[in-house]
Amino acid sequence: MGSRVNSGTSVRAVGQVGIAITLAAFVQACGGDERKDARVASMVATPSETTGEAIAAGGGDGPAAPVIEAIEIRPKRPVAGARLSAKARFAPGTGARGEIAYQWRTGSGRVLGDGRELDTSGLEPGTTVEVVATPVAGDEAGVEVSHRFKLADAAKQIALVVIDAEEGKGVGSVLRAVVETTDESDGFDVASLEWRVGGQVVGEDEELDTSAFAPGDVVELRARLSGESGRPIPAEPIVLERSAPPEIRSTPTAEIEGASSAMRSTRRVRCGGRSSASSS
Hints:
Blueprint: H1 2-42, H2 47-57, E1 68-74, E2 83-90, E3 99-106, E4 111-114, E5 117-119, E6 128-137, E7 140-141, E8 145-150, E9 158-164, E10 174-181, E11 191-197, E12 200-203, E13 207-209, E14 218-225, E15 233-234, E16 238-239, E17 255-257, E18 262-264, E19 266-271, E20 274-279
Antiparallel strand pairs: 1-2, 2-5, 3-4, 3-6, 6-7, 6-8, 9-10, 10-13, 11-12, 11-14, 14-15, 14-16, 17-18, 19-20
C-alpha cells in the first residue's frame, strides 16, 4: 500500500513539473516575440518622429525658406553697359515667399554687387556674369540658385518704322515698309517685317499689294531686328480706302493748222544711222 501511494505522489509531482516547464516556455516565447516586435518597431519612424526630424532640420518651429525654381533676367538680351535686373521664380506649391538675397559675380567669382539690379557700365562685351539668389525666411536660409550668362555687344535698335503710302491708301495700291536703325550702315535686311490685316499675318516682304483687301481694312506693320526675339516695333497703321475711278486722258495725234484744217502727221525714221523727219 505504501509503495503505491508513493508512486502516485511521484507521478503527480512529475506532472506538475511538466506543466511548469510548459508555462515557462510559453512565457519565454511570448517575451521573445515582444522583444522582436520592439526591435522591428524601432527601425520604422512614426509620422510624428519624421515630422519632428524635419522641423529640427528646418530650424525649429519657424517658417521654412521658399524654394527657387529659376532666375529671370531683364532685359532678356543683357548687353554691356546696360542696367540689369533679376527676379526669382518660385517652385509650384511654395508657401510664404519670404525674402530673396541677390548677389552678382563675374565668372571668376569677383563680387560685382548685391541687390536685384546691376549696372554693367565698365564691363566689356563677352564678360561672364553670374547672379546668385538665396531664399531667406527668418533666420533660415534656403538653397541658393544661380544663373550665368555673357554680356552681349550693345544691341542695335530700330529707330523708325513707317508705312510708305506714296501711291495712296486705296485698295489696290502697293504699300512699302520704311525701317531705320541706330546704325546708319545697316542695310534693309537687318530687320524682319510682318504685315497684318485684320490681325492675320499677310506678308513679310518689303512691299504689300493691297489688291486682295477691302475698303476699311486696317493694315499694320511690325519690325524687329533680324535674329532677335524681343518685342517688335509697330508702325502707325493705315485704313484702306475705296479706290478712285480711273481717270481717262487722251492726247491728240494730229493738229489743225490754218483755215484749211489740213492734217499733218509726223513720224521719225532712221536712215543710215541718222534720224530724219518726213511729212505726209
